[in-house]
Amino acid sequence: MADIVQKENLLVRMQEDIRRALEKPEGERRWGMVIDTRKCVGCHACTLSCVAENKLPPGVVYRPVLDQEIGTYPNVTRRFMPRPCMQCEEPPCVPVCPVNATYKRPDGIVAIDYEQCIGCRYCITACPYSARTFDVGYTYTEGTPEQEVYELLPNYEYGVEHARVPGSEESPIGNARKCHFCLHRLEQGALPMCVTTCIGVANYFGDLNDPDSLVAEMAAQPNAVVLKEELGTKPKVFYLV
Amino acid sequence: MTTLATPMPGNEVKSPNWVQWVAWALTIVCLAAGAYGLYLRFTEGHAAASYGSYVPWGLWIAAYVALIGASAGAFGFAAVIFTMRKTEYYGLARLAMLVAFGAFAAGMMNVWLDLGHPFRFWKLMLQTSWTSIMGWMSWFYVIYGLILVVGLFLTRKGVIPKFMERFSWVAFLFAIAFAGAEGALFGVVGARALWESGLTPILFLVEAALFGVGLVAAGALIFGGMNPKAARMLGVVMLILLGVLLLLEWAEYTTALYASVPAKSSAVMTILTGPFWWVFWGLHLGLGVVLPGLLLLFGRGNVLLTGIAGALIAAMGLATKLNLVLPALAQEELEGLAHAFTGPGLTFSYFPSTMEWLVWLGTLGLGGLIVLIGYRLFSLSTPTRSSASK
């Protein structure tokens, strides 16, 4: 694995992997992510770039980085664990949705139809990874002398314009929201924002169905694990430990 | 006032008028509080609530399951009375249908206002996902509401149609399915160890029956529809249900604590020793189980004590459901999540906001108003008899 990491520009390779995957029919792709916890320094760049890319309001987060302490003082060490949506192969959030607003796409990404979601939040309770958050409708400049216009700019999640106007049909306010591997970027051949901005290139992304892809190679490493494997949700996010 | 349970000439215990006046006054106060809460709900949205992303459900969902459960229990009680042709309790059964409708309306109002998009509720019926228990429940609600309205309408003259007596067992089975499915709504959520249990739907059934009968007893006290015989019968039913509830809770909590798997045992410990320990020990166990249990044991056949015990049981139903809904959600699913990212709603602690309390009061006011008006509208004060006895 050290060879892979040292000999080539990983971002360029992942970009090529994505281009190759996009040439296949959607149903034959299986987007996945591998996070190398040994390389993660806990800088939270991925969290913030995700917030910026998806114009996330206060209280909504797609990819927090968990800061875990191991051992007891003074013999302690820290481990950082970014937590995007696991894009489970068997997602518990999908069958509980009473109106089919959340569904698994043919490429394996679990998506939310913002115009269909009724905001019951049953899916939030059903996710074993707390990967879903509720968009209550906050803005960062609420309560300040002037509401900043940029807070109401639309986001382009799922490749659709979602104006942040309370009460409008396409607004994500009142919905459950989650990471979607930056699907809108992916479909244009770009890597998810968290992968692009990771300062240590600790994220590997691509098509798990492509044995030549970097992500498939990394996911096959013996030290690759998934969270809460015992639940049988079959996450498509792996961690190198 | 005429007795509700007939024939019991000279045996009825009349309720003084001031009891109903107090009920009206409380209802109006609740509605006024609710009107302001509703104003806040629609002007400030969910931002004025304390629930958020990590504890996505709060007071309203607890109230919703408590009220819907009580409604199903009261309805099931009425269905049993009709099925068993216990004509002396027919008046009580009609009252049970009315309080079931009031509780149902209040419960539905709680869950409707909890939706992120309340005006998309129609999608639940017209674009139902049949893999979701909630999808099934939305249709159950429609059917249930219709059954209640039709039942109240058909019996408005105090005569129970023969077919209602004949087919009430179907309604009873529906009430069981309905209340059980409400429990399954939680029981199937594998991500929450406290909820995911085969006992959850059973617990919901028992609680539904208990809170429902409690509500009927409280209603009968207000409207004066209970005589000592009815009080004794209601008391025995409530005592048995209280015993079964305690048994189920004991089984659920002790097995979780003994197994010591943190996902579940920590939720149980939150209930027993967490910051809101008094909800379990004081409200649920003290006021919802022990006190009414003692009142029923030592006041057998006493109309006043049975009514008070019923009211306590029904009211503390909320504490029982709060202990189901919240502690399960207040557990960190992944270590470090609580401090990974901060923002409103990204917390595992929860206490209802003023807006939530006000809206909840308003929904209770709505239920109360329905019962108080329905009592006159459906002529529940007229003696009730079977059409077969013509």
Molecular structure report:
The complex is a heterodimer of chains A (241) and B (390). Chain A is of the alpha+beta class and 241 residues long. Chain A has one domain (2-240): Alpha-Beta Plaits (2-Layer Sandwich), CATH 3.30.70.20. Helix content of chain A is 22%, strand content 19%. Chain A has eight helices and ten strands. Chain A has helices at residues 2-7, 10-22, 45-53, 93-96, 122-126, 183-186, 193-197, 214-219; strands at residues 31-36, 65-72, 75-82, 102-104, 110-112, 132-134, 176-178, 203-207, 224-225, 237-240. In chain A, the strands form four sheets. In chain A, strands 8-1-10-9 form a four-stranded mixed beta sheet. In chain A, strands 2-3 form a two-stranded antiparallel sheet. A two-stranded antiparallel ribbon of chain A has the order 4-5. In chain A, a hairpin with a 5-residue loop joins strand 4 (102-104) and strand 5. The longest helix of chain A is centred in the N-terminal third of the chain and has 13 residues, at 10-22. The mean pLDDT of chain A is 93. With 390 residues, chain B is mostly helical. Chain B has one domain (17-332, 348-389): Formate dehydrogenase/DMSO reductase fold. Chain B has 14 helices and two strands, in the order αααααβαααααααααβ. Chain B has helices spanning 17-44, 59-83, 90-114, 122-126, 133-154, 162-187, 199-223, 228-259, 262-273, 277-298, 303-315, 317-329, 337-340, 354-377; strands at residues 159-160, 385-386. Chain B has a two-stranded parallel sheet with strand order 1-2. The two termini of chain B are 23 Å apart. Chains A and B meet through strand 2, helix 4, helix 5 and strand 6 of A and helix 5 and helix 13 of B.
Cα gyration radius of chain B (Å) = 21 Å
The number of domains of chain A is 1
Low-confidence stretches of chain A: none
Structural class of chain B: mainly alpha
Span between termini of chain A? 13 Å
The shape of chain B is globular
Q: Which CATH architecture of chain B?
A: Up-down Bundle
* Total strands of chain A: 10
Strand-residue fraction of chain A?
Answer: 15-25%
* Major sheet description of chain A: 4 strands, mixed
**Tell me about the biggest sheet of chain B?**
2 strands, parallel
Mean pLDDT of chain A equals 93
Strand order of the largest sheet of chain A: 8-1-10-9
What string gives the helices and strands of chain A in order? HHEHEEHEEHEEHHEHEE
How would you describe the oligomerization state of the chains in this entry? heterodimer
